[in-house]
Write a structure and sequence with these properties.
This protein is mainly alpha-helical and about 260 residues long. The chain is built from 10 helices and 2 strands.
């Protein structure tokens, strides 16, 4: 199923230590993780970052199969990125095929890029898997709150980002239903080359866009029916407060990131 192959945007309910963390702690942790991931320049640093990811996944009690399955939709992008880095990076030529040459430096750069993309996708997926959509909205709004002084609509931006993430699995389910309906009427999405398969997907896009607009309209009507008028003067049922577990998680992440950078 399409939905089961994409983990970004899905929420996996649980009572793990990571689930109970304040959403602001998780958002800032992922943001710092991404920054450090782009600063690390060797495999030892990536190994340390992978250990941090594995320990976090274990503490969150997320099945490894689910994280691996979430890499399938971006596997083509990863392979393409690796191939382009291998043949377009100048250096010592290891293998040549016509005008294309695979270099030692290209292979090193390709391996680094693959590690970076894999860790980036897995860690970002864990944020949505362990954080309820409403908590994610509140966390983003709190973090963007200081920017209100310069006119940034923090609540509206946080709401839009959370709704966009939340609708990824929903749209995938809709795409799968439309695809099965068209296959029952004789449509073929599997045969032919890459170009032919891409062309066969065109009839799928029109009903998918129509369904997406319909869902967006229904959501807007539902929010208006509940007297939603934006973030101005809006009260909260749940007030976010940092606890001792958030401090411990922050110390753990800071220590791991520092080791990755120093090494």
């Amino acid at each position: 199923m399409l939905r089961n192959s994409v983990t970004i945007g899905q929420y996996l309910p649980g009572e793990s230590p990571v689930h109970r963390l304040d959403p602001r702690t998780k958002i800032l942790g992922v943001l710092a993780y991404v920054i450090i991931l782009f600063l690390v320049k060797d495999f030892l640093g990536y190994g340390i970052m992978a250990i941090i990811t594995a320990l976090t996944a274990s503490a969150a009690r997320i099945p490894v199969k689910m994280l691996i399955r979430g890499l399938r939709p971006v596997l083509f992008i990863i392979i393409l990125t690796v191939a382009l880095n291998a043949i377009m990076t100048p250096g010592e030529v290891l293998y040549r095929l016509g005008p294309l040459a695979v270099t030692r430096e290209g292979l090193f750069q390709a391996a680094m890029m693959a590690c970076r993309l894999l860790l980036l996708i897995v860690t970002t997926s864990m944020l949505t898997l362990t954080t309820a959509p409403i908590d994610l909205t509140d966390g983003l709004e709190y973090l963007m709150g200081p920017f209100r002084r310069i006119g940034v609509p923090a609540h509206e931006l946080a709401m839009m980002m959370t709704i966009a993430l939340r609708f990824i699995p929903t749209l995938l389910d809709e795409a799968e239903r439309i695809m099965k309906a068209q296959m029952a009427r004789g449509a073929d999405f599997q045969s032919g080359g890459f170009v032919q398969r891409a062309k066969s997907m065109v009839p799928l896009l029109v009903p998918l866009f129509v369904s997406a607009f319909r869902r967006a309209d229904d959501l807007a009507l539902a929010m208006e029916a509940r007297c939603y008028r934006g973030g101005e003067g809006r009260s909260r049922f749940k007030i976010l407060r940092l606890g001792s577990r958030d401090v411990a998680a922050g110390v753990f992440m800071a220590a791991g990131f520092a080791v990755a950078l120093v090494v």
